[in-house]
Amino acid sequence: MRTQYCMMVLALTAGLVLGQDRPIRVPSDPALSPSGKTMAFAWQGDIWLAETAGGPAHRITWHGANDSSPHFSPDGKTIAFLSTRDGGSQIWTVPATGGAPTKITTESGRKRLWGYTSDGEHFVVTMTGDRGFHSSENARLYFVPAAGGKKRMAFDAGFADAAVSPDGTKVLFTRGRASFSRKGYQGSQATQMWLADLSQTPVSMTRLDEDRPNFQNVSWLAPMWAADGGSFYYVSDPDGTFDLYAHDLDHGESRRLTRVGAVDRSDDGVADPTISADGTTIVFRRRFDLQRLDVATGALNPIALHATGDVLADARERISDSSTSTVAFTDDGKQMAFVAGSDIWVMDRILREPRRVTQTPHEESSLLFSADGKQLYFVSDASGEVDIWRATCDHEKGWWWQSESFELSKVTEDAAVEDSLALSPTGKHIAYVKGTELFCMDSDGSDHRRVVATWSTPNFDWSPDGKWLVYATQDSDYNSDVWVTPLDGTREPFNLSRHPDRDSSPTWSPDGTRIAFVSRRDGEESDIYWVNLQKDVEEKTARDRKLEEAIAAMEKKGGRGSRGAASAAGAKAEDRPASGRRGRGRGRANGGTDPKPEPLAAKDQDEEKPAEKKNDEAPKDVVIDFDGIFERLHRIRNPEAFEGGLLWAPDGKKLAFQTSVNGESGLYTVEFPDPGRPQKLASSGLSSARWLSETKEIVGVSRGARDGDSRRRGGFGGGTPAAMNDRGAITNFSFQTRAKRDWRAIRTLAFDQAWRAMRDRFYDPAMNNRDWLAIRAKYGDVAGQCLGEDEFSTVVNMMLGELNASHMGHRGGSDPLPDAPSGDAWAPTTYHLGLRFKDGGEETGLEVESIIPGSPCSLARSRVEPEEVLLSIDGTPVGPDVDLTALLTLDEARDLELEVANREGQVRKVTVRPVASVSDLLYDEWTRDNRRQVDELSGGKLGYLHIRGMDMGSFRQMETDLYHAGHGKDGLIIDVRFNGGGSTTDHVLTALTQPVHAITVSRGSDEGYPQDRKVYASWSKPIVLMCNEHSFSNAEILSHAIKQLGRGRVVGMRTAGGVISTGSSRLIDGSTVRMPTRGWYLVNDGTDMELNGCMPDIALWNPPGGPDLQLATAVSALAEDVQAWHDTPRPKLVPASARRRPGARPESGLSPAGLVEKPGKR
After folding, report:
1. Which of the listed residues 290, 311, 332 is the one where a domain comes to its end?
2. Pick from 1055, 322, 1014: which is nearest to 701 by CA?
């Protein structure tokens, strides 16, 4: 089947006419004027204004930065918004009629703007503070003067969303984590609704929603006050669809306002609601557009918005490209094909005037020339699925760079994704990956057949005779091994590496005698391993080879002529491959970059025929002696380094690879049959590398030159096609291409890639019981209309939300909108002294309440004491009404001079250098306070440690803490609250569940066990594990494991229920989508841990801003377990001498066999 690409271009761009009015889809952050007649919203990075009834929208900000979160002032004359236009997130204001924006705040750090107070005097803003290390506990609500000045904290507790009552005395706030895009989540991380009464001292906080059984809670989010302040509105999804509800504070009852899904029988619900100050109108987004609710009547009306064409960004742009990440060379090295700007181009290596082969917005990859150089195979998603295509040129000599046109045809046509094309050395077959399986076809595109069925995508290489494949793939235990299999299926695949660690990147020597691969067999270090496939090759000694050389030399000297010369030269012509290795599947080789050798002579370019095999003789059959093959495995040792990008020389006598030797990285080689110390060939390598037999060059992509506009190209780095000679010198074949593209087509393709990635790789093939084809149709068209990065990301995340799964999300990428100022530009930073101050107090100065341990003002050279008064900073007086952050917002870190007074009124000066962040110091303070509290509550008998993350750094700290915090203690609290996960559960369990099989005693010592015999420092005494709703992923796996193994009790709150192993997938626009690929199930009953958080043995919430009740409960529980442990009988140790004493009888409490344990205190 032949398909002309131009038809696809027309289909994707049909009807896209510049200058016409454009529907506004996926607006965000709607905000209503006080009367509800007008609304502001964010779209394409700017603030827009429109009538609530719909119609044309007008842009009131226009900047390359991101403007968001607009809010009307109470008089409707001003709009406040957040903008990154000054290098950070700051509050700006602009007249509602348009005009120049005014910057209000200067304090650095993330902010969320909730609007104005009802008197218009203050903004209501979320900002990070110095009260907690975790994001859920560090956010605080502040009132920031609209005219500028010192902020005031509303209440001291972490929260998510907030709304201040009309009279300013109360705040509705949520705790937890929820997203409008995710459908159906129920669990402990669902947002709760709380009411803070600011009129009370201290501020009272009351929870308004209730827990469901087993804490399978639904979210209450997006609180909005009614005009009278006696009730409020919110969004919730008790039936799986987000709808609006009203809640009466006096009676504590809720009623439903909407059933938005009833109209079309869907579960697409309410998102991003906003209410007018008079309480008459609520506007929200459903799917891609806004709707208006009349609160009094319940009438719902759609809001159709459009933007005039003369103010819109141009969706089509002209691009120039000078870099590529994919290249293929013909066998003679004279012609090359590469991808630039998502299209395939061809050129020669002298004139270097690229000719375009494909012209679509689609993505092409995995380029591969046929053996005669007359056909170019590649992979493309031009037809809506990723298939193999073939291009041929119209030039009679096969000169691609001189062709006027190219004929394109599809080789495969199915839903599976094809990739990683590799031509056999004989030129007769092409191997490729289809989905996750290894397939093969004849080089003419016929006779497709599966070679290896596997769930894990293999990387592979051909044998030189084209009759075998070597590949690496993972088993169900995720252990990667290297296998060999015959193409004809005459024997089962053979496990060549057979090792319980990672073996990968196999490559077959062109002489057929060896296979090399990378293996991790010694801790975390990887090395190259290789095997002689024939016994006689293995058994041949260095002397044997020297003898052969001597005989060859003597025969040559004896005048045997050409026959002797042939013997001295080594292998016969038929034993040598006609060309270099081509297109190995995945894990391709890396070569090097740098100086410049001589290019091929111009006369070589004028030969009559294109690249073709010089030898028509069949290659010698590869022979494999499987018997004893494991004993022929050898290692190339290179300490403290990692090897990759293995690449054989055409004669099979030299192996190149990327590594570091003595700290110096580069492309190195070793020679066979006796590889010694690696020798450096070049300081860096080539990607997509291939070693040509005709020119003896390594060709590929040099990373030395890159295109400066990588963001416009989708954020992909690249280089230039290049060739490296045998001295490591590099010739770069620079080029320049020009093309046009339409961003609406790019968005459509990026969406399809994200959709396809989930279809093929999401861990549960049931896809949350959704019709995934229907999901594509539902979101795909609108995704193509989203030029803005934020709008497109919203649509993709809506699609992902249909799966109701954790470890999901779309982010990043680029767009055609005007660029913000350079990302290299710096912004002022608000620094921290490490001081916390009391509210109110002195008329002049600020009284110090506490000092963050480890902060600048806690150090001996610049120490400030609690209850001292800070009078000035660099000579500027400070006090209760002075905005301290303005004095601490600096262009760069520098010393400040503080003036402080002690309780006696004595004034002194302190020189201090503030810090940009106190997050780590707050974490240290929190763990230190917890350790102190456990010590006090337990009378010094129990220890405490916190595992910050499930990573090796945190685990090593845990190992230290096992001794530091556990030394001399009877029990240990292991805390994984606020732990976001990672991968080290099994390491932690090794330390906590080490089998106790013996007791050792040296003369004069107490009972124990040699620490050096253990894998890690271990703990066998009682434990309690603490978790909460912010324990996520691998921290949840650990929590489940402690319960499953009965190692100790679990205390705290049920975990989030977010357990899927994840990776990521890159899209054509440079954005990424997270890729959840592996599910985790409980071993006792097979239940999926996803949406099934670990239920503690003792479950309780910690109140916002209140005492740590969970920690106190854990201490009580562990004290009980320690007492039970003390009461457990312990054996009396009986030395051999006691058993050998004549007439000895067992001591009281022991049976004659010594098996009855004698009670005794531990």
Report:
1. 311
2. 322
Residue 673, preceding peptide bond in cis (omega within 30° of 0): yes
Q: Is 242 helix (H, G, I), strand (E, B) or coil?
A: coil
pLDDT of residue 707: 41
808 and 704 part of one domain: no
Distance of alpha carbon 337 from alpha carbon 345, whole angstroms: 6
Q: Specify the CATH number for the domain of residue 86.
A: 2.120.10.60
Residues 642 and 694 grouped into a single domain: yes
Domain span including residue 1005: 920-1058+1093-1127
Residue 791: helix, strand or coil by DSSP? Answer: helix
- CATH number, domain containing residue 785: 3.30.750.44
Q: Is 852 helix (H, G, I), strand (E, B) or coil?
A: coil
Same domain, 840 and 783: no
Give residue 583's pLDDT.
Answer: 61
Query: How far is 1101 from 1116, CA to CA, in rounded Å?
Result: 16
pLDDT at 4 over 50: no
> Is it the case that residue 604 has pLDDT exceeding 70?
no
Helices 985-992 and 952-964, packing angle to 10 deg: 20
Q: 582: which DSSP letter?
A: -
Percent of the chain with pLDDT over 70: 89
**Integer Cα distance of 828 and 310 in angstroms:** 36
Residue written as tokens 């049959």?
Answer: 673
* Average pLDDT value over all residues in the chain: 89
Q: Cα separation of 1038 and 645, whole Å?
A: 36
**Which residue reads 């000092």 in tokens?**
851
Clarify whether residues 383 and 418 are in a common domain.
Answer: yes
Residue among 371, 372, 406, 376 nearest 390 (CA): 376
Distance CA 219, CA 204 (A): 22
Residue 797 · residue 754 · CB < 8 Å: no
Strands (E), 743-815: 810-812
Into how many domains does the chain fold? 6
Residue 888 lies in a domain: yes
Together in a domain, 851 and 996? no
**What CATH number is attached to the domain comprising 1039?**
3.90.226.10
Q: In angstroms, rounded to a whole number, what is the distance separating the alpha carbons of residues 514 and 655?
A: 11
The dihedral formed by the CA atoms of 741, 746, 747 and 751, expressed in degrees to the nearest 10: 170
What pTM, to 2 d.p., does this model score? 0.89
Least confident of 589-598, 640-649, 728-737, 777-786: 589-598
Q: Which residue has the tokens 């904290």?
A: 153
pLDDT in tens, 613-626: 445 567 899 999 99
Whether 175 shows a pLDDT value over 90: the answer reads yes
Distances (CA, A) of 334 to 1, 578, 1016: 30, 16, 57
The three-point CA angle 1070-1067-711 to 5° equals: 10
Same domain, 804 and 718: no
For residue 995, name the pLDDT band (cuts at 50, 70, 90). very high
Residue 958 lies in a domain: yes
Q: Is 671 helix (H, G, I), strand (E, B) or coil?
A: strand
Average pLDDT over residues 525-536: 94
User: What confidence tier does 820 reach under pLDDT thresholds 50, 70, 90?
Assistant: low
CATH code of the domain in which 361 resides: 2.120.10.30
Q: Mutual orientation of helices 919-937 and 1109-1127 as an angle, nearest 10°?
A: 50
Last residue of a domain, one of 915, 943, 963: 915
If asked whether residues 169 and 190 sit together in one domain, one would say yes
Count Cα atoms within 13 angstroms, Cβ side, for 688.
26
Task: Give the pLDDT of residue 1159.
Answer: 44
9 in a structural domain:
no
Residues 43 and 129 in one domain: yes
Strand partners, 470: 461, 484
| Region 117-145 average pLDDT | 92
Residue at 826 is within a domain: no
For residues 954 and 888, the answer to whether their CB atoms sit within 8 Å is no
| pLDDT at 982 > cutoff 90 | yes
Tokens of 520: 């991790």
